Amino acid sequence: MALLPAPSIAREIFADALPSAERYAEFLAGPGVERGLIGPREVDRLWERHLLNCAVMAEVIPADATVVDIGSGAGLPGLVLAIARPDLSVTLLEPLLRRTVFLQECVDLLGLPNVEVRRARAEEAADEFAVDVVTARAVAPLERLAGWALPLLRPGGELLALKGERAAAELEQASAILSEFGVRDAEVLQVGHGKVEPPTTIVRVVAGKAPQPSGRRTSSRRGGRRRGERKR
């Protein structure tokens, strides 16, 4: 299927960054499909189903936030958010080499100074980050995702997980682990009203101060601030 032109609403969502979003869409529809990062049947709906659906998440991300995108894959939603919001500092966290190669090529192609590509699993990098926001799309059920994402957040930071119809059910099923991590708040939000149809559904979880399991390494925390952690 051929890549369709950007819909008119894309200009409102991406503003001056629309040319970068268009180049990214073209790269997804070409090398992204050829390398198996996105299915060929998705090309004709890249804008509505993928780019715009992810970009409207920016509505609930504060200015100048530090962001870690878990399991970035083809860059959804992390790379899209970095394009739409150049004020964000985004780390794309992806364990598979072929995907990190693709992501780095995208970053180089688009000239995005606010993005770092990191090959690692979230649980391996937990001691390195204390960011404002963690994002994820189609990575895992919230019950598992929370255990990977919450250790990457500063107290008061937010996990924003893009979910579908089962968002409320997943949130309920994850109640035990959310309680274990001492989260401050958790809710289901819809963003992008009037811009995408249907609106994008997000599970928002606000991190508390996570318990420190016995035997967990803490040296990186004692030695200084983790990446994304701000001076108090």
TrEMBL record:
<dbReference type="InterPro" id="IPR003682">
    <property type="entry name" value="rRNA_ssu_MeTfrase_G"/>
</dbReference>
<dbReference type="InterPro" id="IPR029063">
    <property type="entry name" value="SAM-dependent_MTases_sf"/>
</dbReference>
<feature type="binding site">
    <location>
        <position position="76"/>
    </location>
    <ligand>
        <name>S-adenosyl-L-methionine</name>
    </ligand>
</feature>
<keyword id="KW-0963">Cytoplasm</keyword>
<comment type="similarity">
    <text>Belongs to the methyltransferase superfamily. RNA methyltransferase RsmG family.</text>
</comment>
<feature type="region of interest" description="Disordered">
    <location>
        <begin position="200"/>
        <end position="232"/>
    </location>
</feature>
<keyword id="KW-0698">rRNA processing</keyword>
<protein>
    <recommendedName>
        <fullName>Ribosomal RNA small subunit methyltransferase G</fullName>
        <ecNumber>2.1.1.-</ecNumber>
    </recommendedName>
</protein>
<feature type="binding site">
    <location>
        <position position="71"/>
    </location>
    <ligand>
        <name>S-adenosyl-L-methionine</name>
    </ligand>
</feature>
<keyword id="KW-0949">S-adenosyl-L-methionine</keyword>
<comment type="function">
    <text>Specifically methylates the N7 position of a guanine in 16S rRNA.</text>
</comment>
<keyword id="KW-0808">Transferase</keyword>
<feature type="binding site">
    <location>
        <position position="137"/>
    </location>
    <ligand>
        <name>S-adenosyl-L-methionine</name>
    </ligand>
</feature>
<feature type="compositionally biased region" description="Basic residues">
    <location>
        <begin position="218"/>
        <end position="232"/>
    </location>
</feature>
<keyword id="KW-0489">Methyltransferase</keyword>
<dbReference type="Pfam" id="PF02527">
    <property type="entry name" value="GidB"/>
</dbReference>
<feature type="binding site">
    <location>
        <begin position="122"/>
        <end position="123"/>
    </location>
    <ligand>
        <name>S-adenosyl-L-methionine</name>
    </ligand>
</feature>
